[in-house]
Each structure stands twice: as C-alpha cells, then as structure tokens.
Amino acid sequence: MSTTDTSPFDADVLRIGECTVTLSSREVVVPGVRRVRRLTPKAIGVLRALVRSGGRVVTRDELFAEVWPDTLPTNDVLTQAVTQLRKAFAGNEEGGAVYIETIAKTGYRLRVPVVVVSEPAPTAPAPVSTAERGASADFGAAAAPDPARPPPKSALSSAWRRLRRTVLVAAGMCLLCSVVVMGWMLQRLAPQSPLEAAVGGGTRVLGSPERPYRLVTATAGFETFPSLSPDGSQVTYEASSDDGVGGEIKVQTSSNAPARVLVERPQGASDRFPTWSPDGRDIAFARFSADGRCEVLIASATGGNVRHAARCDGTELLSFDWTPDGHSLVFGSMVGPFGHAGIRVLELATGRWRPLQYPVRPDDFDYAPRFSPDGRWLVFVRNPQLGDLWRMPAEGGTPEQLTDDAAEIRGWAWLGDSQHIVFGRRVDSEVRLYQLDTDERTLRDMGLDDAQWPTVARSADVLAFVQRKAQFGLFRASVGGNQAPERLLAAGGRDSQPTLAPDGNQVVFASDRSGVYALWWTDLQRPDSLRPIEGLRPEARQQPDWSLDSRHLLVLGRDGEGEPRVYELSPRDEQVTVLPVPVERPLQALYVGDRDRLLLIERDDDQRTRLSLYDRSATPWRRLASLEGVSQARFDRRHNRVLFTRFGAGGLWQVDPALKPDTVAVVSEDRPSRWMYRAWAVNGVDGVDYLESSITCSTMLTRISAVAQAESRCLDAARLSAGNGFSTTADGTSLLLSLAVTDGADVAVMRLPKVPQSTLPAVIKPLISKVNPAS
Residues 532, 519: contact at Cβ < 8 Å? Predict the structure, then answer.
C-alpha cells in the first residue's frame, strides 16, 4: 500500500491524520485500536464534505444541503454525525477533537492533513527474450489482424453489452417518466374529503373536520400512563380513584365503554404505571403503599391472580417494560435501597437480576427502556430532566445518541417497526408528539396538540396517548394564614414561570395568551404596562434571571434557525441583546454578584453537562471554574452562595460563587426530586421554597431551611402548579406562581398514521445501479 498527494475527491481509501478511512465500506482504522470502527452513511457524507473543503470551514447550511438534501433535519442530526466522527478518530477518550474543530455558530473544519492511500500498481510483464521471440515467429502471421476476417467474439460481446446498457437506460428513463406522470394524475384524481369537496367549490359550509383521534376516557379527573393490549382492542391506564386518595389501574375497550378496575388496592395505596404483556395475558404495574413501600406487581389482564415481581422502595422516576418474549421485565435506573445504576433485566421465573453491560457515568440516569419489536435494539431516555433518546444493542454495548436537544421528553414508544419512534416533547407551553426515524435521524411533527405519553399496540396499527389541555394563570399565594391564592392578570391561555424582580414590582412570565408563545413584562404598580417583549422566543424549560439592580434580565431562547441563545434584555427600555456565550448548547444563565461574571449551565459535544463560571469582560469569554453534573442552579444573594440540583440524585447542594470544589455541601438530601428539579426558589429570608404535591394536596409548599426543620403547608388542595418555575417575594411572605385554572387528562386512541415514504427513490435506485454498475 502506498500514499500519493493526488486529489482525495474521488479516492476510496484516505489517510486522515493517523487514521485510515475506507469510504466505500465506511470503515476507520485507528492506530493502536484493534477493532475496525464503522461509520453511518450520514457521518461518511459529512466527512466527504470536510475532506473536499481542504481545511476551510464548512458551514452547517452547506452540510445540511449536501448530506441531508430535500429533507428538514434538526441540528442534532449534524451534531450526532460529527460526534460519531470524533469518536471514530479518537485513539483515546479525548482524541477526536484534534481532528474536527467546531467553529462556534458557524460550522466545522478538518484540522489534519488528508492524503490518498492507493494499492500498488500491477507489475509489468517481464521482457521477452530474443530467443523466445524467434521461437514464436511462426505464430506471428496468425496473430496479426486480418481485415477480411470477422471481429473476435470478445469484441462482439463488448458491443452487445454497450447496446444492452443503452436500451436499459432508455427503458429506465421511460419508466421514470411514466411513474412521474402517473403520480401526477393520481394526485389530481385523489378522492377528496367531504370538507374539501364542499369548501373547494365554495357552495356550502360543513361542520368542523373530524379529529384523527377520539377520547375514550372523557371524564373528570386525570387518566394517565396508558398501555394498549397487543391487538389494540383494550387500553389500561392509571386513573384518579373515586375517593380522591391515590390512583388505581383501570381497563376498558378502546371505545367509550365503561371501565373496570383491574385489582382492588389496599387502603391508602396508589397503583401506577400499568404496562401490558406481549401475549396480552398480564399487566404489570407499581404499587406505592401509605407506609412508603413500593413493589412491582403482575396481575392477570382479566383481574386477580396478583403476584410480586420486585421491590422498589424509595425509587424515584420508576420505569419498566416487558421484554419481547414476555418472560422478563426491563427496568431503568433505580435509586433507594433496591436501586441500581443503569438498565437491568429481571427474570420473572427465577427472580434473578441481570445488569446490562454498557458504559454509565455517575451522573447518568437511564429512564423508560424498551426493546425494539425485532429484539435487536434497546432504546431509553438518558437524564429525563433534560433528556435525549439513546439506542444500544439489546444485550448491551456502546449506546448511540438518537436526539440531541436536551428536551423534556414525556413518554415514547416504538411505531410498529424497529426503525421509527413516537415520543412526546415539551415545546413552548405544550407537549406535542414527534416521529423519529432512527436511521436517518430526522423528526416529523405528527400534528397532535397537547399530546404526551404515547403507546402503540404490538400487533395492530393503534396509537393511544394522553391529552392534557390545561389553562394556567398567575396567582399570588400567602405563606402564612389560610387565604386562598389570589388571581393576577386574568386571561386565557397558559401563563407560567413568573419571575419577580428584586425591586418587588416588575414581573416577567412566559405565556401563549396572545396566540403566540412569548415573554411578557409588567409593572405590578401599573396594570396598563403589560406587554410582550419583542425580538426573542423564550425557552419554556428555564426561568429568566434578574440582575440585582432590577434593570436587566438573562433569558434563554432560540433564534430564527432554532439555535439556543442567551439574551440579555432591558424590559423597560425594550432592548434585546444576544450574548456571545462561548458554548453551543447553553441550558441556563445566571447573574452573580460581579457584573462581569456569569454562570452558565452548558452541555458539550460529549453530552456532559456542567455549571461554569465565565468572565465576560474578556474576549472571548474565559471559563474560570466548572462543576460537573448540574441540572439547575440559583444564586442566593443573601447568603452569597450558589444552590444547585444534580442529574445523578435528588436533593439540593450549595457551593461558593467561585465554584470551589471544597465548598460543595448538601442542603437537602431528598428535595427537590429529580423530576421536579425546577420547582424551587430562593426565598430571600433563610432558605429555599419548594413546590410539590401529595395525595391530599395538589400544590404544597415546603420551606427548606438550614436553621429549622423543613415545614410544609398546602397552598391549594385542588389545583396543580406548573413545575417549571415560580418566585418568592424578598421578605418571604408570599409566592408568585402558576396554577391550573382548568385541568384534566384523558386517554385518546387513533389509527397509527403511516410513516411518510416516497415511491420515487425506490424507482430511481435500481435505474442508477443499471447505469453505474460500480455503485
């Protein structure tokens, strides 16, 4: 094998840095690494573009246009491809960054030389001696071409092959034109719906078009966590009990027929998270007892025959599902006395646990694992607070990231095959369903509003999900006394994340009250001052942060291309500025005492999340210190400390503003919980206020103090609070929070929508292979 300096544009084998890449087989050979690494087709496409650039920066738009033409991919698919390239080139854990450099807010650049690796040229035939030439002289006349004789058979075969190829190309082009014309005619002749037929001619008006789904539990209260029977004829779900204490598992046909209770539960217990077995005979669920015990139980789908499967005491964010053969249950990460870091399988016949072998970092929490229908893959949500979908082989191995959005994922399911997934994702003020192609890494909005916790029948084209159409308003609640919360700024829609300025007068909040999700500002002393802030689209998952002088705000938002940005704005002056933060994925931004310093929660290309302190007086900003695994932070001005939560555990910690590791200390061991990691605020007096719910109180305030035992008080027994942020007044006497004005959740059922596929590529592909056999 030899190297040459010729152009790498058309070469198959390249030397990139110290690695050897074979483009046709998508293989990477790394010095010192025994196993050959294989890239995905999209990663190879990105690599080709970087190689052709000759070391210049290739923008994201250029990469999207070349590697994902005629599609609408999200930014995470490109990030995934680059991450895979870096890992493939890495001889160790950090080496990949040497090969591909990220140019902030622009694109990527290949930093190492590229040369072509070619096979040795064929050896020339040995020269013929004079004697040999003489010995063959008698054959010279016979070997010479004779114009009178017909051409040799090989020449005729070559001519015939050329003629056949020309005929095939012409036939293929005719077939292609026929398909295009036929498709156009079918589209013109496609039957119209009654609504299209009526409105298209402008002759009459019909009622509203039918929704693609129907609600099968249209009752008061909450019906959540549905699971469909394998044939899609029945649905089981968690429902509010008639006595209002705890939840119970109900089963009904996938219509509006009356539901039945699966099993009777003990007094004070709550049954949750039902999931149907693959054969349709059993339903597994979790039972939380009044004394704090938790166990996973299995009952016959017809009711009765309840048997114990596992203990789950102290478990937070419990998740489990059946294996494809129905003989075992697969569990996500668990905490508590029966906990385990990472995914494991419980064999029901023996009660034996089998942990899956795959890399899990201390701060990783893997949630909602499910095997693919063909049994090849296991997909799960990693760190559901700011989660993404990951996939690995069913028996363990190296996980690969499917999404890269740090989103709040509300349930997911396989879409009848082992390539497509449906999942709920919080967007602005609602949760919507999205369809993910795990091979192409592309997303498609399914057009369902307020939809979450999807489930799909294993052997039928039926989809069920939870629809929650709540309205939230802003309220002021008194900490002392028995006064009911007082409504502020009445309006329709969803108001959330009220953030009170240190001056006690200005409030900003996120709302869709105008029909468009936006950030709103008002001065409580001037009711007519209410107005939206133009120029940014806020992130629903993070609360804004006021400066100490109440003049500026840090807000996390997205620009016109959907990229995350940190904005600094002055609400009174209506000035909005994009800050040049030196990170690609900012998750939260906070002021500290020094105006030139900011705190950022950020996530890097290796999906590590950290809290960092930056000096923004330098250009570019200079990172001064970092703390790994932080999910949320607040700056406590009164006590000059930073309070934070972690991905790896529930509870609350503190650290000094310089983020010195030796100053980290535990504030609370159990609150906030992992899922309610944003439902807390510094009260400005002596501690932290935390909002949670219980069986008897929908919105309960718990005051966590370093000088006294935590105290709880019910603020509203019936209405739930939004879990994405609230504020406490400086004197700690009252709260500004978002409470549900109307609420409830129902189970909806619909036919599974077909995955959109174009027939044109299926026709073109064989034609291309005929024209270019080498492909």
Answer: yes
pTM value is 0.73
CB-CB contact of 674 with 316 (8 Å): yes
CB 764 within 8 A of CB 772: no
pLDDT reported for residue 232: 94
Whether the per-residue pLDDT at 333 is higher than 90: the answer is: yes
Instruction: Give residue for tokens 């949760």.
Output: 431
Sheet (strand 652-655) strand order: 630-636, 641-646, 652-655, 665-668
Find the helix packing angle between 60-67 and 41-52, rounded to 10°.
130
Query: Are residues 21 and 13 in contact, defined by beta-carbon separation less than 8 angstroms?
Result: yes
Q: Which residue has the higher pLDDT, 104 or 63?
A: 63
Domains and CATH numbers, the chain: 2-118 (1.10.10.10), 213-469+747-751 (2.120.10.30)
Range 427-436, long-range pairs (CB < 8 A, 24+ positions)? 427/540, 428/512, 428/517, 428/540, 429/493, 429/494, 429/496, 429/510, 429/511, 429/512, 429/517, 429/540, 430/494, 431/468, 433/465, 435/753, 435/755, 436/389, 436/402, 436/403
What is the Cα–Cα distance from 379 to 358, expressed in whole angstroms?
13
State the distance between the two ends of the chain, measured CA to CA, in whole angstroms: 24
Nearest to 708 by CA among 668, 674, 651: 668
Instruction: Name the more confident of 276 and 315.
Output: 276
Q: Count other Cβ atoms within 10 Å, centred on residue 305.
A: 12
Phi and psi angles of residue 479, each rounded to the nearest 5 degrees, phi first: -75, -40
Closest CA to 30 of 116, 119, 99: 99
Residue 736 gets which letter from DSSP?
A: E
Q: Residue 355 to residues 359, 394, 583: CA-CA distances in angstroms?
A: 12, 12, 36
User: Is 717:725 a contact under the CB 8 Å cutoff?
Assistant: no
Asked if 46 and 68 touch (Cβ cutoff 8 Å), the reply is no
Max CA distance (Å), the chain? 122
Kindly give, in sequence order, each residue whose CB lies less than 8 Å from that of residue 446, ignoring residues fewer than 6 positions away.
Answer: 422, 432, 433, 434, 435, 753
CB contact set of 115 (below 8 Å; sequence gap of 6+): 3, 4, 5, 8, 14, 15
User: Using one digit for the tens of pLDDT, what is the confidence trace for 750-774?
Assistant: 998 876 554 444 433 343 333 333 3
Give φ, ψ of 44 to 5 degrees: -65, -40
**Is the pLDDT assigned to residue 223 strictly greater than 90?**
yes
What the block records as the tokens of 418 is 């082992």
Separation CA 705–CA 695 (nearest Å) = 24
Q: Decide if pLDDT at 616 tops 80.
A: yes
* 582 contacts 624 by C-beta, under 8 angstroms: no
Q: Which residues have CB under 8 Å from 618's CB, separation 6+? A: none
The pLDDT assigned to 642 comes to 96
User: Do residues 72 and 78 touch, judged by C-beta distance below 8 A?
Assistant: no
Residue 35 CB partners (closer than 8 Å, separation 6+)? none
Q: How far is CA 146 from the centre of its chain?
A: 73
Q: Residue 426: is it exposed, middle or buried by C-beta count within 10 angstroms (0-12/13-18/19+)?
A: middle
Tell me the residue type at 260. R
- Mean pLDDT over 237-260 rounds to 82
Provide the edge-to-edge strand list for the sheet that holds 234-240: 223-228, 234-240, 247-253, 260-261
| Distance from the Cα of residue 558 to its chain's centroid | 16
Q: What is the dihedral of CA 30, 34, 35, 39, to 10 degrees?
A: 0
Burial (CB < 10 A; 0-12, 13-18, 19+), residue 371, is buried
Tokens of 665: 């200390």
User: Which amino acid appears at position 18 of this protein?
Assistant: E
